Amino acid sequence: MTKAERTRAFIIEKTAPIFNKKGFAGTSLNDITAATGLTKGSIYGNFANKDEVALAVFDYNFERANAGISQQIAGQKDAESKLLVYVSAYTDFFNTQCEQGGCPVLNTAVEADDTHPKLRKKAAAAVLAWKNKIVAIINDGIANKEFRSEVNASQMALTMIAMIEGAIMISKLLNDKNHIADVMQSMKKMIIELS
C-alpha cells in the first residue's frame, strides 16, 4: 500500500464506528479529525468531501459485519446449517455489534432513504447482495433435496432479512437483547420447517 492508501484506510477505520453510530448527517468534520488526529487538510487531501468518506465507510462497515458470517457459512456442509448460521450470529448480535452502533445496513437504509441517494444506493445493493446469498443457499438446498421443492427462495430470503433487521431495531430501541433472541428462535423454526 502507498502512503496515501494507508492514510485513506486509517481514516476509514477510525471513522467507521462514528458514522455507524451518528449517521451521515450527525458526523461532522470535527468528529473525523478528532477520531483520526489528522487536520481537515489531510482529510480533504485523501477524500474529496464527507460524502466520499461516508461511502467508503459504509463499504468497510458492511464488509466487517459480513465477513464473520460468511466465514461461518463457508464452514457448513448443508443448506440448513448455512441458514442457521444467521440465527446464531444474530442471536449474539446485540452483545457484539451494538457497541459499534448496530447494523450498518439498517442504520444507513433508514437515514439515507430520503436524504442521501448515493448512500441509499449502497444500502440497497448490500440488501440485494445479502438476499442473493440467501437465495443461493436455499436453491442449493432445494437442488440437493434438503428443502421442499415448492419453497420460494426469494420470499424466504426477504423474510429472513426483514426478521433480522426488525429484531435488531426493536432490541436496540428497547435496549433488550431478549427481543432479538425471540425473533431468531422464530426464524430457526421457520428454517427447520423448509425440509
TrEMBL record:
Protein name: TetR/AcrR family transcriptional regulator
Source domain of life: Bacteria
Keyword Transcription: yes
Protein keywords: DNA-binding, Transcription, Transcription regulation
DNA-binding region of this protein: 28-47
Coiled-coil region(s): none
One example GO MF annotation: DNA binding
UniProt KW Transmembrane helix keyword: no
Species of origin: Pedobacter polaris
SUPFAM superfamilies in the record: Homeodomain-like, Tetracyclin repressor-like, C-terminal domain
Domain HTH tetR-type stretches: 5-65
